[in-house]
Amino acid sequence: MTTMQAAALEGRQKKSSVKLDKLEAEVTQEPVPVDPVGEGEPSAAIIPLEQFQAGFVGAFQIASQTTGLQSLDVAGHNEGSARMAAKAVYEIASETAMLRWLIEGGNPWMGRAICIGAFAVPMARNVRAEIKAKREAKTDDNGQSAEA
Amino acid sequence: MTTGSLPKPDNRLYLGRGGSGKTTLALAHTWAFPRVIVSDPTGQDALAEGCLVTDDKLELISFLRIRGDLRICWRGAFVHGQDEAFDFVNRAALAAGDICMLWDEAHLSMTPQRLPPSAFEIWNAGRHQRCRVFASAMRPARVSRDCTANLSRACVFQTLEPSDLRFLRSFMEPSAALEAAKLPQYHAIDWTPEAWSVKKSVFP
């Protein structure tokens, strides 16, 4: 390195030191971010596409088993299109800030959604069955009354 | 290469599906430079090899004060969120100067339209601080159009999606974009504004 080059490098390093000092001052004046997840826990990172696809397909499997509806079972020949749909959702979520939580690892919303679903889905199924049973009983009563 | 005392722009795109080898190639190219920051939003082990790893802003700044050869892996997205971490690392690189910046999974930090302000500055004016940017992305169509301006080189692995091929045609010759759809595994189009050819990765 020539003397001129060394002098130019020294000059650049001094300028960069001043700029880094300013950036450092800005950082030390920032308020400490309030972490809604918990004390000291890092914000969530984006989960890989493959993990999201596995979770997406798995959710339909669980729904199929919970409701007894075979149409929801995406295993076999339906899994390919389910994975493509999952990929499309993943891409939308990665581009849309409001939907980013869908692909953030460790986010609490999926767990909450599963808890609510585990309660609501069997409840809805039981309510439907009860209403149907009552209607059938009412029809039988009317039928018997007509015959009488 | 220099024009007087100011280097020519040296911004590069590395495009291809997951597992195609784009990140491996981009990392290999960064080893030609003494001072490197790898912006790692997804925490990949390969990106941290040989690096000082941090997610702390003040620690990043302290690393950048080190003279001489330096490799930093920035994982600020895990603490500060994607957008803030990306903005900060670009501003820090511009402040420090003499940096080769690798934006891994760049499409996570930008829209197809405009680059965020600090990213726009380092991409278009980074050479004034002797900074260059290598951006790797799975989906060319989701890379900002700002990245085709001031682009010195693109290494493109097999690309099949129509929207991605349209993006390639926006800056490449049609024949090169056509070739991108036919590339065998681990082969890439090595494109510059002057010429292009197909090469087997890893290449200099």
How would you describe this structure to a colleague?
The complex is a heterodimer of chains A (148) and B (204). Helix content of chain A is 70%, strand content 0%. Chain A has helices at residues 3-29, 49-67, 79-95, 108-147. Chain A is elongated and about 105 Å long. Mean pLDDT of chain A is 77; it is low at 35-43. By secondary structure, chain B is α/β, with parallel strands linked by helices. Chain B has helices spanning 22-30, 45-48, 57-64, 77-80, 82-96, 117-125, 162-169, 174-180, and strands spanning 2-3, 6-7, 12-15, 35-39, 52-54, 70-74, 100-103, 132-137, 153-156, 187-191, 196-200. Chain B is globular, with a radius of gyration of 16 Å. The A-B interface holds A 8, 12-13, 15-17, 19-20, 22-24, 27-28, 33, 42-46, 48-49, 91, 94-95, 97, 100 and B 5, 18, 41-43, 55, 57-58, 61, 64-65, 67, 77-83, 91-92, 94-98, 107-108, 111, 129-130, 139, 142.
Give me the secondary-structure topology.
The complex is a heterodimer of chains A (148) and B (204).
Chain A: H1 3-29, H2 49-67, H3 79-95, H4 108-147
Helix pairs in contact in A: 2-3
Chain B: E1 2-3, E2 6-7, E3 12-15, H1 22-30, E4 35-39, H2 45-48, E5 52-54, H3 57-64, E6 70-74, H4 77-80, H5 82-96, E7 100-103, H6 117-125, E8 132-137, E9 153-156, H7 162-169, H8 174-180, E10 187-191, E11 196-200
Parallel strand pairs in B: 3-8, 3-9, 4-6, 4-7, 5-6, 7-8
Antiparallel strand pairs in B: 1-2, 9-10, 10-11
Helix pairs in contact in B: 3-5, 5-6, 7-8
Question: In whole angstroms, how far apart are the ends of chain B?
Answer: 16 Å
- The rounded Rg of chain A comes to 29 Å
Number of helices of chain B: 8
Mean pLDDT of chain B: 92
In which order are the strands of the major sheet of chain B placed? 5-6-4-7-8-3-9-10-11
Which residue ranges of chain A are poorly predicted, with pLDDT under 50 across at least 5 consecutive positions?
35-43
Strand composition percent of chain A? under 5%
Largest interface: A-B, 26 and 33 residues
